[in-house]
Amino acid sequence: MTTFDSDEAAKVHRQLHHALPSDPALRVKALESLVVERGMVAPETLDAWVEAYSEHIGPKRGAEMVARSWLDPSFRARLLEDAAAVAEELGFQGHASAHLKAVENTDRIHNVVVCTLCSCYPFSILGMSPSWYKSAAYRSRIVREPRKVLAEFGVELPEGVAVRVWDSTAELRYLVVPQRPAGTEGWSLEQLTALVTRNAMIGTERDLSPYVKGAA
Amino acid sequence: MDTIHDLGGMQGFGAVEVDEPEEPFHHDWEARMWAIARNARAADWTIDWWRHIRERIAPVDYLSRPYFDSWMQTHAAGFITSGVFTLEEIVSGHTDDRRPPPPAENLAQVLARARREAHRFEAPAPAPARFAPGERVRAVSTPPLGRDHHTRLPRYVRGRTGTIHAHWGCHVFADLAARGIHEGQHVYSVRFTANALWGEEADPRDCVHLDLWESYLEPA
Prior knowledge:
Chain A is mainly alpha-helical and 216 residues long. Helix content of chain A is 48%, strand content 10%. In chain A, the strands form two sheets. Chain A has a two-stranded parallel ribbon with strand order 1-4. In chain A, strands 2-3 form a two-stranded parallel ribbon. The termini of chain A are far apart. Chain B is of the alpha+beta class and 220 residues long. Chain B has two domains: 1-96, Cyclin A, domain 1 (Orthogonal Bundle), CATH 1.10.472.20; 136-219, SH3 type barrels. The two termini of chain B are 24 Å apart. In chain B, 42% of the residues are buried. Strand 3 of chain A pairs parallel with strand 4 (207-213) of chain B, so a sheet runs across the interface.
């Protein structure tokens, strides 16, 4: 049993630092071999989890939620009221989706999400997070100079737009609902879903216009 | 604890590397580590204890090792401190205490399990909520359990004044959960203006929202 001893954990980290090989692939290979030998998991189950998060659980889920919100005002209202329940209706519930909140971009507001303390992310809705989301540069700077960071992503904010940064410090998780771009009147759910990027749902992209994206 | 993980507002890290391949995993070992973490854990871990173990990685390693390598180190240190594996077993990748594996799960079973793992963090409220939306609050300057423990109160808001934006209900309190104690505490979305956090040079149009437990806050 653990004693939840913080300094003991730090001591073990120092031992690991000296004892483990430098190559992360070798470290993880040894850990996998160990947990399999101990009977914690079958290797085929690990394969299935990799497949699940490579092919099935990913940002297309969030994109569909956003696209549906563009097409159906009542869906949009429910999404903004209780995004976790909407995710469950669509069968998208899972890791870090139980306390999901949707925050909408408007002509006056741009939302952007971070976890400054670790790397909290709505995995079940957006899949694996990009490396930059977990980087020290993003986590340190987006709360302090969001406009400079957004400019690095190519986001140019019009004069009247305020930035709202959401730091995921508890178990709430955030999904940014970007604005429906002009020029998509009459588009199908599938067409609209394809327009919505992962970065737009984190908030590091704003204009999803097909003319900007070159997708038209 | 004021360790390296508390990065909000720190300076000097340079530009964000925005150009990155779209695929979910960039190396096979990252995918394996993610899958291991979904399946292998010690029974006595809590999410916040696991986070705290990760926070105790030596600062130079925390900043320089790849992200999922920090998960490997966190799992390794967690297993060792829970008495599940020894350091020697972690290093060698082998154990004399071998046990039969559980039945293999296929993709459909794994996707069903992923849906069941939408963990909820609500907990019974010990008392009525102390604050209501619109109220002014100040974040305490010292986390409730002191500076030597896990907390989800970042340094950059301590002592700063903001406004309650929403009351999210009563959730398991992270600082205690990191010590294996499950107690409910009200949690709020608190809005801080950029000026309140960073001074006059910040853009007056902007603000930062944090989700903060009640004991992080006092009336302002």
